[in-house]
Specification:
Layout: E1 10-12, E2 36-38, E3 46-49, E4 56-59, E5 64-67, E6 70-72, E7 87-89, E8 99-101, E9 104-106, H1 112-119, H2 135-143, H3 148-156, H4 164-176, H5 186-192, H6 194-198, H7 210-221, H8 234-245, H9 253-260, H10 262-275, H11 280-286, H12 292-303, H13 307-317, H14 322-328
Antiparallel strand pairs: 1-6, 2-7, 3-4, 4-5, 8-9
Helix pairs in contact: 1-3, 4-7, 7-8, 9-10, 10-12, 11-13, 12-13
Length: 333
């Protein structure tokens, strides 16, 4: 099945990645399109790295463009020059097994658990310029089709690893692939290992713990929603609430609950302010979405913990007359 880069095929400079295999496209940015053709002259678009080692020159029979970083064809226009749209993606074939990717043989007999264990920390190739963690596993997952679930469930197996680096690798993968099969095991794995995670430094941020990294991932997982906009993962929502009451979660934690369970947020706003003072301003901002009769209650409870912070946030995020009414309910500092 032929697929196309869309909506904007990408040109990349010499320091970024232009794949040689035709199935490599569209799985991340910046990854150059290697199937460009010109709609004006009909020729394929050729490319070469220039002597400065920074520019890549693209050319057909009627156009030439040098690129240092990346350029998405058709995406940039201004008042002086219309967007350049003569070059289009000519189409890419599917990545089908059996195949060899970066020296790794993949077929129906592939041991996905062994493959993940081998490549999670020692990837056979790191695509240059792609700003993702767990790049190789993410790339493979996005290239695969029927085998995607087998790969991602194997990554989920790393959630119970004793090596913090492997746990971190699983977190990175599911941060990129929050809808992947196996992501439904995140909440259970974090709850089961909470004490260990809380006592284990995050390999990437040693000043923080793996539990903090897990909490951030759980909030990312909540972005996987159904057709009605509700999170597909109820256990994850329940665990993020439990962690939040202990002061654990990203800086925008109140906004998560504003979006997915506002009644719970209004009922626990004071507890959240007490659990993590860094959430106070975001809590005040989120309270703009509370019913009027609850908003003052939420802010008054938060002000019991941090009156100065609440007053400052109200002054910043509310206009008169709401501002004056809310400030009058907050004890002076």
């Amino acid at each position: 099945m032929t697929k196309f880069c869309g909506p904007y095929p990408e040109l990349v400079g010499a320091r970024l990645w232009l794949p040689t295999q035709p199935f490599e496209f569209g799985w991340a940015s910046p990854v150059g399109c290697n199937a460009l053709r010109c709609t004006s002259c009909g020729e394929p678009v050729r490319s070469e790295v220039l002597a400065d080692g920074e520019r890549r020159r693209y050319a057909c029979g009627c156009h030439r463009r040098d690129t240092v970083w990346s350029y998405r064809i058709g995406s940039e226009s201004d008042d002086l020059h219309p967007a350049f749209t003569d070059w289009v993606c000519g189409g890419h074939p599917d990545f089908e097994l059996p195949a060899t990717l970066d020296g790794v043989e993949l077929n129906e007999a592939t041991d996905w658990d062994a493959l993940v264990a081998e490549t999670a920390l020692r990837p056979p190739f790191d695509p240059p310029g792609v700003e993702l963690y767990a790049r190789w596993l993410t790339r493979l997952h996005r290239l695969l089709h029927a085998e995607q679930a087998a790969l991602s469930r194997a990554v989920a197996g790393l959630l119970s690893a004793e090596d913090p680096l492997l746990v971190r690798a699983a977190y990175d993968f599911f941060t990129n692939e929050r809808h992947a099969a196996g992501a439904e095991f995140l909440a259970g794995a974090v709850a089961e290992r909470r004490e260990w995670l809380e006592g284990t430094p995050d390999p990437r941020r040693p000043s923080s713990t793996l539990l903090s990294g897990a909490a951030l991932l759980l909030h990312e997982r909540l972005l996987a929603v159904d057709a009605s906009g509700a999170p597909v993962d109820g256990p994850t929502l329940a665990l993020t609430k439990e962690l939040a009451l202990a002061g654990i979660g990203p800086s925008d934690t109140p906004l998560t609950f504003r979006d997915y369970d506002p009644d719970w947020l209004w009922a626990h706003g004071g507890e959240l302010a007490a659990a993590n003072a860094e959430w106070v301003e975001t809590l005040v901002y989120a309270s703009a979405g509370a019913p009027a009769e609850l908003r003052g209650k939420v802010l008054a409870e938060a002000a019991k913990v941090a009156p100065a912070e609440v007053r400052a946030a109200v002054e910043q995020h509310f206009e008169q007359p709401d501002r004056d009414a809310l400030l009058s309910a907050i004890p002076p500092t």
